[in-house]
TrEMBL record, chain A:
One of its GO terms (cellular component) is plasma membrane. It is a multi-pass membrane protein. One of its GO terms (biological process) is transmembrane transport. It comes from Arthrobacter agilis. Keywords: Cell membrane, Membrane, Transmembrane, Transmembrane helix, Transport. It is found in: Cell membrane. Residues 73-264 form the ABC transmembrane type-1 domain. Belongs to the binding-protein-dependent transport system permease family. This is ABC transporter permease. The keyword Kinase does not apply. InterPro entries: MetI-like, MetI-like_sf. The chain crosses the membrane at residues 12-36, 72-96, 108-129, 141-164, 185-208, 243-263. Its main location: membrane. It comes from the Bacteria.
From TrEMBL, chain B:
It is a multi-pass membrane protein. One of its GO terms (biological process) is transmembrane transport. Belongs to the binding-protein-dependent transport system permease family. This is ABC transporter permease. Pfam families: BPD_transp_1. Gene3D superfamilies: MetI-like. The chain crosses the membrane at residues 36-55, 98-121, 133-153, 183-207, 236-256, 288-312.
Length: 278, 320
């Protein structure tokens, strides 16, 4: 790009490179500190904060696991898997209808579904609590599942619809000629072709559900059904003096999503790019 | 110089997630009610669990609840009048505004500059590694990030005070989350740490879509890196910048998670934000009507931002 290599350019590039590296250290060091603190004893923790743990034992991790983290983890996995599947399925189904069917008032339908993108979940919070209490679903797994699906349909439908719009309609018509009905065409032709955007949608929904806090806190505060974000704050308040155990719990909560991000970066970035820039 | 740039907007995809495309495939077919089968599940779920409670919230905001007797009565605008005279509400609104301002500087303009610096590196391996590393805090939850920084700021075992002592700035060490003057700023700072990688990644994607010839042409014309940034990168990522402004503003008025984890709005309500105050009023004091009035303010603010986005996108489309 730059053909001219002046002294000034070298100085500037060195400066930029050092700045970018320093920023990377600012990002990584606190995370590293978190993982290392999970291996320390309480007295080590209150000693030199920059010191390495004297020995790497899994004791704190085991303690965290046995003090509820295993159950929070199971709940998180269960809610994340079911909510993600339901959201992506309902959204893909709706996206197919929106792109392939001529529905009365279709513009209104589209505006209603995508309009949900503009609404802040907190605004619906108080009525939702009373509604779920009336339905007998407050403090149940179903409350979280329903809410996560409802509030993620707009974004997910938006993503999948934008992808489906670009698929040629001739494919469906060829299927119709072969005698396949609309539902068949959806399942066996259109859905497989949407695989890239479906994978992106799944990843973005996993990330959202795994980390969600407001609904999880309000709708499962009393029961023994808690996801990791809520469970971690419990771990903190219940075993407040044993900070290393809290650090171990935080690490257990963070590792799965960091792994997911690094393993699926390609789809991840694509989903984000399509979500905001298509 | 600027003439060829204006003819290339097609390369920067128009960012319009909120603007429905009106031209749909299959427009030739007759309108059949059977199509409803496809959109009914989504509409039903949204109608019952998103739109209905939204309307109910407006209704709640003009009611007063007697939580023990179980009844409620119409009180007109009393909840809103109470809101106008509530210093904590104004404090919360101010804190949200501070959140928005700092996030605009760091996560929009700072992130754009940062993305340009990263994408300007020659090694593709380094570009990819830095983008990924900066994003990691956005992958972990705000709960984990908030708890982590609770400890970072902790006066006794935290690394921030230890660092200050290490470089001889003992005078600056303090209980960052425990003082009214610093608590909200400490939370906002954590939030920048957590979120800047996300917008940097998005800006990096936008910059990658700019045709390389534009940069090459500018270089051949003897345009230096700073002017290349201002004359090529900034105008050609305008769509993404506009979108990030909207997303950041809207998010800044919905902040909750990190405040609850780090300070619960304290000390002395100094770090309260709109949603945490709504939560306290609704579930701490069971004052549903008042909480609903706070929710209406959040609704108006976030909807206003979204409509602004729609208006800008429409206008831009007309210009093309």
């Amino acid at each position: 790009m730059v053909t001219r290599t002046s002294v000034l350019g070298v100085v500037a590039r060195t400066f930029v490179a050092s700045f970018l590296l320093a920023l990377a250290v600012v990002v990584i060091y606190p995370l590293l500190w978190m993982v290392l603190n999970g291996f320390k004893t309480n007295s080590e923790l209150f000693g030199n904060p920059f010191a390495l743990p004297l020995q790497f034992t899994w004791e704190n991790y085991a303690k965290a696991w046995n003090r509820g983290v295993s159950s929070y983890l199971m709940t998180s996995i269960l809610v994340t898997v079911t909510a993600t599947i339901a959201t992506v399925f309902i959204s893909a189904w709706a996206a197919y209808g929106l792109t392939r069917m001529q529905i009365p008032f279709s513009r209104t339908v589209l505006a209603l579904i995508l309009g949900g993108l503009m609404l802040a979940p907190a605004v619906a919070l108080i009525p939702l609590v009373r509604m779920f209490q009336a339905l007998g679903l407050y403090n149940t797994f179903w409350a979280l599942l329903i809410l996560y699906v409802a509030f993620r349909i707009p974004f997910t439908t938006f993503l999948i619809r934008a992808y489906m719009v670009d698929l040629p309609v001739e494919i469906d018509e060829a299927a119709a000629v072969d005698g396949a009905g609309k539902a068949r065409a959806f399942w066996s032709i259109v859905l497989p072709m949407c695989k890239p955007i479906l994978v992106s949608s799944v990843i973005l929904n996993i990330l959202f559900t795994w980390n969600e806090y407001l609904f999880a806190m309000v709708f499962t505060s009393g029961g023994d059904l808690q996801t990791l974000p809520i469970g971690l704050t419990n771990l903190m308040s219940k075993h407040g003096t044993e900070y290393p155990v809290v650090f171990a719990g935080m690490t257990i909560a963070a590792v799965p999503v960091i792994l997911l991000f690094f393993l699926t970066q390609k789809y991840f970035v694509r989903g984000l790019a399509d979500g905001v820039g298509k | 110089m600027s003439a060829p740039l204006q003819t290339a907007p097609s390369s920067t995809a128009p960012a319009a997630p909120l603007l429905p495309r009106t031209v749909d495939a299959g427009a030739r077919r007759p309108r059949r009610p059977r199509g409803w089968v496809w959109v009914a599940p989504a509409l039903l779920v949204l109608g019952v669990f998103v739109y209905l409670p939204l309307l109910q919230n407006l209704q709640y905001s003009v009611m007063k609840w007697d939580i023990y007797a179980g009844g409620s009565s119409f009180v007109g605008l009393a909840n809103y009048e109470k809101l106008a005279g509530d210093p904590v509400f104004w404090r919360a609104l101010l804190n949200n505004t501070a959140y928005a301002a700092v996030s605009l500087v760091c996560q929009v303009f700072g992130a754009l500059l940062l993305a340009a610096l990263v994408e300007g590196l020659r090694s593709e391996r380094w570009r990819r590694a830095l983008r990924a590393v900066y994003f990691v805090p956005s992958a972990i939850s705000l709960t984990v990030a908030g708890l982590l920084f609770y400890f970072v700021y902790e006066p006794e075992l935290g690394i921030l005070n230890a660092l200050l002592r290490g470089v001889g700035l003992d005078g600056l060490t303090q209980a960052w989350l425990g003082q009214e003057g610093t608590a909200i700023w400490a939370v906002i700072t954590m939030s920048q740490w957590q979120g800047f990688g996300y917008s940097t990644l998005l800006f990096a994607i936008a910059i990658q879509r700019i045709p390389q010839d534009l940069y090459d042409a500018a270089s051949l014309d003897g345009v230096g890196p700073i002017r290349r940034f201002l004359q090529v990168t900034v105008p050609l990522t305008r769509e993404m910048t506009g979108l990030m402004i909207i997303v950041t503003l809207s998010g800044a008025f919905q902040v909750f998670n990190e405040v609850m984890v780090m300070t619960s709005g304290g000390p002395n309500n100094s770090s309260q934000v709109l949603v945490s105050w709504l939560y306290r009023m609704g579930f701490g004091r069971n004052d549903f009507g008042y909480a609903a009035a706070i929710a209406t303010v959040i609704f108006v603010l976030t909807l206003g931002v979204a409509l602004l986005q729609l208006a800008i996108t429409r206008k831009r489309r007309v210009e093309w």
